[in-house]
Amino acid sequence: MSDNNHYNDNLHQVRFHGKGGEYFAIWLVNALLTIITLGIYSAWATVRRRRYFLGNTEINGDRFDYHAKPIQILKGRLLVIGGIIVFYILAAILPQLALLIALAFLALLPWVVIRSWRYNAIMTSFRGVRFNYHCKVGRAYWTMYLCPILLMLALYIPITAVVLIAVQMASISAILISVIIVVVALVPGVAAVQGIISAMTHDLYINNHFFGNTAFRAELKKSTFIKYSLLAIVLFLPFLIVAFWLMGSFFTTMYQMVAMGAMSDDMAGAMLLSNLFSFLMAFVVLIVGALVVASYQVVAVRNYVLNQTHIGERVKLRSSMKTASYLGLLFSNALIVVFSLGLATPVAHVRAARYMAERTAVVGDLSLPDINAHHDAANTAVAEEVAQAFDLGIGM
């Protein structure tokens, strides 16, 4: 059965109407009042910021809304801050008890993340219908903890065994062969582990979201995520080679001097100083390479995930980001923020939101005849504040 039986050809472009100067006024007031109130106003600042960005995001003439109450966020934030203070006091008085609390917190992280996603979903609405998120806690623990641990063990135990065998053989040829085996195994192995974890995490996020009572669904293939991870590693290799080439003469000279026993602290310092420019250039090359790779992965994954995402039987999402334009946005935003000494941060945020909106669309019947509102409540914002405090979780 083709998609034409379910979806019409109506393409609804997402639009963002926010302006840098307009948001700068909100950002400045938020910052000043947060400072004056010693952080208390930060809860109201969070709500104002989210309402501004969601309220300026339009699809087919309708805009999103954010319903969180600042007092809810403030209560959650105060509880989180109080917990952190108690933890540091216990760490100074009873280090063993503090360690147990830290381990308990780590054990609760998957629950915290999915509760945060649920809170943000229920607080967001479109056309008066709120989003929702339902996920079994056991599935969250499998995705975030158990499966990644098993994958890492499956990758590194054989590699460690190969290295130990080579060392026990005490043979130069065996060590060289083991190094080649490790390098050859690590590239696809790391790509496979990263890709599988990314696929499972996005599946956990997308396929448990709802718009009203209508489920989001996306058929995400692990092989596609592995391909993106492998291409990212391959893309980084030229930058790595150039960086090693820039530092090659230093390491070669250093090795020769050490082999001849002619190396001293003064000579090492002089060599470092004479190669300082090469080290700086190598560092710049690695940073640029990391940004290029990160941009490629963000674009590739976002396009794939959104293009696979459907809402019910009548609506699907579209993403058309490009690596070059996204990378240009990152560089230009970084320059704007740096040269304005941070004052143009709101402009960078608005530019990023507009870019994302312009490359996102919704296809299908937005009359949404099959959508029914739900009546679930999000309860408290504690999990959301914990997730924010420790920068946990992912968003789409």
Q: Count of helices?
A: 12
Helix content: 55-70%
The major sheet is characterized as:
10 strands, antiparallel, barrel
Characterize the overall form.
globular
Q: End-to-end span in angstroms?
A: 29 Å
Q: Quick check: average pLDDT?
A: 84
SSE string: EHHEEHHEEHHEEHHHEEHHEH
The total beta strand count reads 10
Q: In terms of quaternary structure, what is this?
A: single chain
Any low-confidence stretches, pLDDT <50, length ≥5? 389-394
Q: Structural class of the secondary structure composition?
A: alpha+beta
Strand % is 5-15%
Q: Could you characterize what this model shows?
A:
This protein is of the alpha+beta class and 396 residues long. 68% of the residues lie in helices and 11% in strands. Among the domains are: 136-207; 221-295. It has 12 helices and 10 strands. Helix 4 (95-122) packs across helix 12. The two termini are 29 Å apart. The model is unreliable at 389-394 (pLDDT under 50).
